[in-house]
Amino acid sequence: MLIGMEQVAVTDRAARRIAEITAAEGRSALRVAVLAGGCNGFQYRFELDDATQADDVVIEHGGARVLIDPASLDLLAGAELDYAEELMGSYFAVRNPNAKSACGCGTSFSVD
After folding, report:
1. pTM value?
2. CA-based nearest residue to 3, from 89, 65, 53, 49
3. Could you name the CATH architecture of 2-110?
């Protein structure tokens, strides 16, 4: 099941992991941002945050809070935040329909 604004969805698996991490670290939310940079033009940034800005979009689901600034939200419209556990490690993954190409490491993308 996916919960979130129609612009960004958070999977149940991601919400559980966010809730675990924020509780363990004594923080209130995971901030998801898109920054200029990376080998393809934009890159995702995930960081724990306690400061909700006045213009942040706040997604709450399953005991988890996700914060997204308006500029990042434009580049994340229609995206899904998930959590993956694979042989090579575990990580938050963004399935972003706006990404036209991505680098091999999966952390940067372009919208052209």
Report:
1. 0.82
2. 65
3. Sandwich (2.60)
